[in-house]
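User: structure tokens for SpoU rRNA Methylase family protein, please.
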Amino acid sequence: MLLREGDARNVVDAYRYWTREAIIADIDKRRHPLHIAIENFGHDANIGAVVRTANAFAVDTVHIVGRRRWNRRGAMVTDRYQRLRHHDTTAELLDFAAAAGLTVVAVDNVPGAARLEQTGLPRHCLMVFGQEGPASLTKPKRVRR
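Assistant: Done. Predicted tokens:
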């Protein structure tokens, strides 16, 4: 069908006429060990943008915590190529991170927070972004180096 009707998918030219499985397999060869989590306890419209950005940087996995439903329009179909994992609770996410050996880094702009660009991050980490409005529910322990 792609050959007969042309490939109108929103993919880079290098992936034209590739199957979705082949695209994912190629991206998997270059994935970065970084994990991203976003909390979805209210109704956060930014999840799609986070998924799209994570896909652009070949992030290992995007974790969505809370509600399973989210507006996929912002992802612009990149959710088909990005690994996604759902966790019902923050505790479930933190258990996953501990089992996977990931350092949890809560990202927020609250007073007293360290500047991200001045912080040495471990290569294998889980960056947790709270939803817009309330702060992140994740309370990771401070990692000292």
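User: Anything notable?

Assistant: Residues 5 and 62 are 33 Å apart (CA to CA).
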